[in-house]
Design goal:
The protein is 44% helix and 15% strand. The chain is α/β, with parallel strands linked by helices and 236 residues long. It starts with a strand and ends in a 13-residue tail after the last strand.
Amino acid sequence: MNLVTLIRHGQAGSRDDYDRLSETGRRQAVKLGAWLAREGTRFDAAVTGGLRRQRETAEIVLAELARAGLAPPQVLEDPRWNEFDIDAVFNALAPLLAAKDEAFRAGLETILAGMGDGANGIHRRWTPVDTQVVEAWIRGEQETGVESWSEFTGRVAEAMDALPRLPNVAVFTSATPAAISIARCFGCKEPRRIMHLAGSALNTNLTMLARRDDGLDLLSFNQVEHLDEKSLRTYR
């Protein structure tokens, strides 16, 4: 049996500059690294997706472990652990949905109007517009030219299967790839359930899976013992 520890990245930036950690996200990552070091956690390898927010989270956490003499002997990058490209999906589908749905168009205009204000709550809120765009993408009813849902879930499965067969591997990834991997433990391929799981994932949470020859087992989900301040327990 091998242990796979999935780590969601820290809180990211605003809607118009999402792929970087916010100051809160950096604090979350420091807290996680320090907590893992106090626990004496030793990873045999660390794998990070190719997104900036994933790499920044890994760098901060692994630096804390290195200070405690617990740095993993190898750090690998595998872009198959990337989140789906929400910007590409949004840019491809939002105009099509807006053209035929007045309520959607009004919601989209509210989002676009609020993006210029960094303090606007729209940057931290998942809206009905976001849900409609993602659901349309999952259904695959429109030709978009972007990665499909089935291609996305397929490459996440490939990434899991490609992990080093070592006792404890850390994977710095995002909410939906982690949710896909959790659902796989139960043979679940239902997109709605996967997206509900992803929506409940806290930033820098730990999810632990046991990888056996015959499949995956879920050991824990959404652990955030390291986030000892309520303000640090964020979803977006």
